[in-house]
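Thread: "does anyone have the structure for this chain?"

Original post by V.I.:
We have the sequence but no experimental structure in hand. Need at least a predicted one for the grant figures.
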Amino acid sequence: MSLRKYLLIMGFGSAICWGAWFLVLFNIDPYSSGWIGRASFYIILFLALLGTLSLVGFFIRLIFVRKSVLFRHIGVSLRQAVLFSILITISFILQSSRLFTWWNAILLVFSFTLLEFFFLSRKAREENE
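Reply from O.Q.:
Generated one for you, tokens below.
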């Protein structure tokens, strides 16, 4: 798949997910729909954030890091978008349960930071071998 095709598909998919999320947000009552309404809210939010953050991360890398291959940016931006989307979605889930506090936020950010450092160290180890 070409880079242009990937970016178009990811952008189109993100736009569809954001449209679906706004439909869920304004048309589904979470109290009467039960767990299906809440699950669709969080799943569609995760997918919309994933696509959007992946594209934003790719374009930021495209602007600031010009010396490397473009396809390498896709993997890194997708991985970081997944981590950040999970972080935001878990924060919303905790907030809806009234469990989101500052120490939970710090613990979440610290956990995902450690996970990202693990991926970066693994990549550095593979390049040295």
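V.I.: this helps a lot. Residues 3-128 form one domain.
O.Q.: and The chain is about 90% helix and 0% strand.
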